[in-house]
Amino acid sequence: MLYLFLNLNLIDLNIPVLAKYYITDAFSVEAGPQIGFLLSAKSRGEDVQDLYKSTDFGFNLGCGYNFTENISAGVRYTIGLTDVNDISDEQDYPDLFNASFKNSNFALSLAYKF
Questions:
Q1: Phi-psi region of 98 (alpha: psi -120 to 50; beta: other; left: phi over 0)
Q2: Does the pTM of the predicted model rise above 0.85?
Q3: Is the dihedral of CA 8, 9, 13, 14 positive or negative?
Q4: pLDDT along the chain (114 residues), means of 10
Q5: What is the C-alpha separation between 41 and 49, in angstroms, rounded?
């Protein structure tokens, strides 16, 4: 069994397109696709951006609550749909050649509207 420990820093620009539906005046649900663009990928200070695809797609699900007219909170989960692994050389990276990596995340938000 192989254990692989990476110090990896990926920086993405994600653009979600969401539809929001208000169930009540205060509570809403949202869903929609997201496209992401890889801006930087570094491992131990070395550029490894060529090992990852430059774009990926995801799907967002979330909900929000308006406490007052000015204060709201939300939670959202992004399900990664694209395998971002772009390793094409099995000889240089035999352990990662058939691996699947997907970007998924969980986000909390707190907003003040003015």
A1: alpha
A2: no
A3: positive
A4: 63 94 96 95 85 92 97 96 76 63 91 94
A5: 5
From the number of C-beta atoms within 10 Å of its C-beta (0-12, 13-18, 19+), residue 59 rates as middle
Amino acid letter at 38? L
For the record, the structure tokens of 10 come out as 């990926």
DSSP state of 52: B
- N residues, the chain: 114
Per DSSP (E only), the strands in the chain are 8-16, 19-22, 27-43, 46-47, 55-66, 71-80, 105-112
- Under 8 Å between Cβ of 52 and 10: yes
Measure the CA angle with vertex 21, ends 20 and 25; round to 5°. 115
CA atoms within 13 A on the CB side of 33: 6
DSSP-assigned letters across all residues of 70-93: SEEEEEEEEEE-S--B----TTT-
Which residue type is seen at 16? P
Assess contact for 102 and 80: CB atoms under 8 A. Answer: yes
